[in-house]
């Protein structure tokens, strides 16, 4: 099984659509057997679901995530564990051991506040890719 974690400086990155890296973990028999980091190469939001599917990811562990990205992940057959914070390695280990604490209703506050389809350029949060 392959698990992807939004990644920045060893931690679970908190905005799925803006993550610049994923750390991927190969899990077998309840333990991590290998891991590596991949760059998203500028992909963002819904495109990231296709990116993860191309890497054969089965699971995504992340912080906040918007509704459109959640739907794209579901359509790609990738199981979502959102609302996770802290060490990426610890989150992957907890998942492998069946003890990951997550929020099944995790949403990206940024999107909840502004609504899906907003133009981030209008309020200075940066350009969505």
How many β-strand stretches? Answer: 6
Order of helices and strands: EEEEHEHEHH
- At the first level of CATH, the class is Alpha Beta
**Estimated share of beta-strand residues:** 15-25%
Number of domains: 1
Rg from C-alpha positions?
A: 14 Å
Helix content: 25-40%
Mean pLDDT over all positions: 84
Instruction: Give me the CATH architecture, please.
Output: 2-Layer Sandwich
Reported by name, the CATH topology is Nucleotidyltransferase, domain 5
Q: CATH homologous superfamily, by name? A: Dinitrogenase iron-molybdenum cofactor biosynthesis domain
The total of helices stands at 4
Distance between the first and last residues' Cα:
28 Å
Shape: globular
- Overall SS class: alpha/beta
Contiguous runs where pLDDT drops below 50 for at least 5 residues:
110-129
Element layout with pairings:
Blueprint: E1 2-8, E2 11-12, E3 21-28, E4 31-39, H1 46-54, E5 59-61, H2 67-75, E6 79-81, H3 88-96, H4 109-114
Parallel strand pairs: 1-5, 5-6
Antiparallel strand pairs: 1-2, 1-3, 3-4
Helix pairs in contact: 1-2
Would you write up a description of this structure?
With 129 residues, the protein is α/β, with parallel strands linked by helices. The protein has a single domain, classed as Nucleotidyltransferase, domain 5. Helix content is 26%, strand content 25%. The protein contains four helices and six strands, in the order ββββαβαβαα. Strands 1, 2, 3, 4, 5 and 6 form a six-stranded mixed sheet that branches. Strand 1 and strand 2 (11-12) form a beta hairpin. Helix 1 (46-54) packs parallel to helix 2 (67-75). The protein is globular. Mean pLDDT is 84; it is low at 110-129.
């Amino acid at each position: 099984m392959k698990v992807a974690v939004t990644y920045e400086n060893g931690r679970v990155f908190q905005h799925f659509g803006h993550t610049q890296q994923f750390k991927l973990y190969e899990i077998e028999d309840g333990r991590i057997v290998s891991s590596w980091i991949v760059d998203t190469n500028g992909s963002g939001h819904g495109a990231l679901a296709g990116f993860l599917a191309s890497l054969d990811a089965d699971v995504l562990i992340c912080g906040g995530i918007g509704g459109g990205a959640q739907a794209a992940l579901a359509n790609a057959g990738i199981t979502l564990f959102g609302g996770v914070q802290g060490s990426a390695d610890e989150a992957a280990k907890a998942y492998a051991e069946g003890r990951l604490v997550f929020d099944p209703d995790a949403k990206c506050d940024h999107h909840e506040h502004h609504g899906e389809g907003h133009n981030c350029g209008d309020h200075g949060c940066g350009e969505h890719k």
